[in-house]
Amino acid sequence: MATPLEKARQQPESMKAKILTSARKLFGEYGFHGTTTRMIASDVGIDISTLYYHWGEKGDLYEAVIVDMNDGIRAKLTQVEQIIKGRPLAERIEIAVDELVDYLFEHSELSNLAIFSYFTKNRHNSSVDERIPEFISDIAYSMDLSTKRGNASPFAKMKVLSIMNAIHNYVSGEAFFLPMLGITREEYICLTKETVKFFTLSNFVDG
Q1: How far apart are alpha carbons 151 and 78 in whole angstroms?
Q2: Which residues contact 102 (CB under 8 A, 6 or more apart)?
Q3: Is 31 left (phi over 0), alpha (psi -120 to 50) or beta?
Q4: Is-contact 163 200, C-beta < 8 A?
Q5: CA 90: distance to chain centroid?
Q6: What is the residue range of 59's domain?
Q7: The domain spanning residue 28 has which CATH number?
Q8: What pLDDT score was predicted for residue 130?
């Protein structure tokens, strides 16, 4: 039997899919504890009983959001790996940063949820959190920072985390940083790429 998430993906215009889209947005904006099922129901324009009928408890919906986003970034990383495979390290890093920055700015709720997970003491303990180390090792392998897929060294993982944390902070902090810099959003995204590449290339390639 298909899961609610599978049904939402199969029918993007369905009520399940609409609730999932709203939940991604609101969990990304307010975090797990700051978002209520009533807020999600109101955003979709349904009563709360309809939400429970389609998704069950808030924790179940949050799990689906995390799985959906993790699957999305995994697919993106697979795509990036095909593009950068066999290129020199500097090129791999430049292309990977460009692709990841664009993807995360298009899906800013992912960066917001990552920041919430880092800094919220009373966070929701999701069983899918264990998959995150896999992503870190996969990125390290794709960027030629590790010779083994799924088994990167702690140092290689830290390198990846430094890149991902920088991107997450720029994406999540866009509303705060933009007025400070006095530039357009397009310029901000461009500068995010250039800044991350500047520090990454000077430390990982030249160092």
Answers
A1: 17
A2: 189
A3: left
A4: yes
A5: 23
A6: 4-204
A7: 1.10.357.10
A8: 46
Say which residue the tokens 């369905």 belong to: 14
**Which 8-state DSSP code applies to residue 69?**
H
Give percent of the chain with pLDDT exceeding 70: 90
Encoded tokens for 42:
């109101």
The pLDDT of residue 152: 84
Taking the C-alpha atoms of residue 174 and residue 168, their distance in angstroms, rounded to an integer, is: 10
| C-alpha span between 187 and 181 (Å, rounded) | 10
Cα distances from 108 to residues 16, 69, 102, 113, 143, in angstroms, run 21, 11, 10, 9, 23
Q: Which two tokens stand for residue 37?
A: 């099922």
How many domains does one find in the chain?
A: 1
Instruction: Give the separation between CA 138 and CA 10, rounded to whole angstroms.
Output: 27
Q: How remote is the C-alpha of 122 from its chain's centroid?
A: 20
pLDDT in tens, 106-148: 999 989 988 887 766 545 555 555 455 567 787 787 777 788 7
Average confidence (pLDDT) over 32-54: 96
Q: Whose CA is closest to 118, among 22, 31, 199?
A: 31
**168 falls in which pLDDT band (50, 70, 90)?**
very high
